[in-house]
């Protein structure tokens, strides 16, 4: 089970634990007990010497720079929350991979992971990917460190080496990643990525090539702008073709044909050659993914020296923003029902176009009436409200039912939330609509007003 995170004073925690006669590495439940006694996490962050996450303790040092605000996002796993747009996108991508890529035994080729812990070692996040010790991407200014040895993963690539080492040749990892990045409508310090890796043996890569049996994956050559020293040009060109085709297909599956995309060459320490895909969105090119042919040294270090492969990393928010027309990346963290409600689909391929909702304040008015003995339907009232109030009405909820002990009459009370999408409503305007609803309910539904 995932436990929410927080920073706290380690000595103080130990003291409380000792008084409870519990082990010093308690299970989540025990932590909770202590946590409920603490208050103001921000205050703790200032005087802390350990960070707790998922029931584990990370002693603070000069690298520690996670903040309570960031820690409060850890464990939310938006990609696993049903009807969240990131979940919806994940399901569509999974569906595409499951149906398009099958193994010889007709099983899905790619294994999917969406629940790997975002707490990784700096070795996993950087060294395992051949990122040099003095590389700029390790800066404290760019990452969220728990301490010198542990951090919140900055990308899902942190899992590449370990999953290959575990014996996988094709996998997808969906997960939350953390970066101290700029904040604007397409950047957020916590976002989500999809990592994909696919490895090929010589036989798999050259299976459909004429005289494929004469071709080789490896040679002793030179590194050029289009290949690594140990790869043959044939192997690399086939890999690059397959990689780009795989990604073009996902994007076409998601968006349909006709989307404006382009490939740009770039640099990653763990792939060569490397590419980014950009999509034209609102007149600008937006980078949505990075990918490339995996450094053979990495593949070898993971124990797959008879294979070559490629890897890719997609920014899920960026894709979801374009796909659903979500104007601001912060909305993914919205707990507003008006956000969630729009992604409640009956089928994952159902088209959703996000309707931005207003941030203007709501006005709430209640209405109560005795309902007739027969023939009254709640939905009739909802329709009536919609007809009269139109888009001013954001929500109608039945908040109380009351049966009169003597007369046996039933009373309903509804709460109507009014909110305009483009301006602040005045109480007078709302009153006029509300009176109309009261009058019409009596006339059309035969209710007896308790106004
Ligand atoms: C990476 O993170 C590489 N690990 C991707 C990769 C994987 C390359 C495997 C090669 C092989 P990059 O930093 O460019 O690359 O991020 C990948 C995608 O994440 C970007 O294209 C973008 O869509 C998204 N992204 C990056 N930073 C942010 C951010 N602050 N907010 C939202 N999305 C972001
Ligand atoms: Mg990039």
Structure notes:
The chain starts with 5 loop residues before the first strand and ends with a strand. It has helices at 10-20, 28-35, 41-46, 68-71, 85-100, 122-125, 160-165, 202-205, 233-255, 296-301, 316-324, 337-340, 378-389, 427-445; strands spanning 6-8, 50-53, 56-59, 111-113, 119-121, 150-152, 170-178, 190-200, 261-268, 271-281, 284-294, 308-315, 363-371, 393-403, 410-418, 448-449. The chain has a 7-stranded mixed beta sheet. It folds into 3 domains: 7-71, no CATH class; 78-114 and 155-330, 2-Layer Sandwich (BirA Bifunctional Protein, domain 2), CATH 3.30.930; 363-449, Alpha-Beta Plaits (2-Layer Sandwich), CATH 3.30.70. Helix 5 crosses helix 11 (316-324) and helix 13 (378-389) packs across helix 14 (427-445). Residues 1-47 have low confidence and may be disordered. Helix content is 29%, strand content 24%. The radius of gyration is 28 Å and the shape is elongated. It is an alpha+beta fold. The protein is built from 14 helices and 16 strands. Bound molecules: adenosine-5'-[phenylalaninyl-phosphate] and magnesium ion. Residues 276, 287, 290 line the site of magnesium ion.
Q: What is this structure's SSE topology?
A:
Elements: E1 6-8, H1 10-20, H2 28-35, H3 41-46, E2 50-53, E3 56-59, H4 68-71, H5 85-100, E4 111-113, E5 119-121, H6 122-125, E6 150-152, H7 160-165, E7 170-178, E8 190-200, H8 202-205, H9 233-255, E9 261-268, E10 271-281, E11 284-294, H10 296-301, E12 308-315, H11 316-324, H12 337-340, E13 363-371, H13 378-389, E14 393-403, E15 410-418, H14 427-445, E16 448-449
Parallel strand pairs: 4-7
Antiparallel strand pairs: 1-2, 2-3, 5-6, 7-8, 8-12, 9-10, 10-11, 11-12, 13-15, 13-16, 14-15
Helix pairs in contact: 5-11, 13-14
Residues 155, 157, 179, 181, 187-188, 191, 193, 195, 268, 271, 287-292, 311-313, 315, 317-318 line the site of adenosine-5'-[phenylalaninyl-phosphate].
